[in-house]
Design brief:
mainly alpha; elongated; 167 residues
Length: 167
């Protein structure tokens, strides 16, 4: 992030954005991910909350990656098998208590907040492919940059694959 802004490099900013995103993804509270392991240590109910949140994100279309669907299936198996008694809950030695639990929860929440803040700050100077092409061509775009850096990426492909003979 910082090196991308110092060097004014869109590539470095994009790489930083990817790094922030993959770390946030890994902190999602599903059992196979690091966030799921933290959730399991904090409370036996948190993996179910993570599964419900994941289903909500997938149903709303906020996350549409097929890998995420497989993670949801694994999370559903974990939560379901524990609820039906097919598998044992996390062992007692894995549960955190007292100050250790609160410190872990605070560190987890702080890390998520820091990654979200870094991603937001990083995207403040990011440009869409359309903005970069316009700059190179010496064209000034009328529109103000949005916080959705990828909104116009696929717009340039609209109609590109349409059959010109079909009208």
């Amino acid at each position: 992030g910082i090196s991308g802004h110092v060097a004014d490099s869109q590539l470095l900013m994009a790489l930083a954005d990817w790094g922030f995103m993959i770390n946030l993804f890994n902190l999602f509270p599903l059992y196979q991910l690091d966030g799921g392991r933290v959730a399991d240590c904090l409370s036996p109910a948190l993996p179910a909350v993570g599964l419900a949140a994941g289903i909500g994100l997938a149903a709303s279309g906020a996350i549409s990656n097929p890998i995420f669907y497989f993670l949801l299936l694994g999370g559903a198996f974990q939560v379901g098998s524990r609820a039906l008694g097919w598998s044992d809950p996390a062992p007692p030695w894995k549960r955190l208590r007292g100050a250790q639990m609160y410190a872990t929860a605070a560190a987890y929440a702080s890390l998520v907040a820091a990654l979200l803040a870094a991603m937001t700050l990083n995207n403040a100077k990011r440009k869409t492919p359309r903005q970069i092409q316009a700059e190179r061509a010496g064209i000034v775009l009328d529109e103000a940059p949005t916080d959705h850096c990828y909104d116009d990426y696929f717009a340039s492909f609209q109609g590109a694959f349409d059959d010109p003979d079909r009208s």
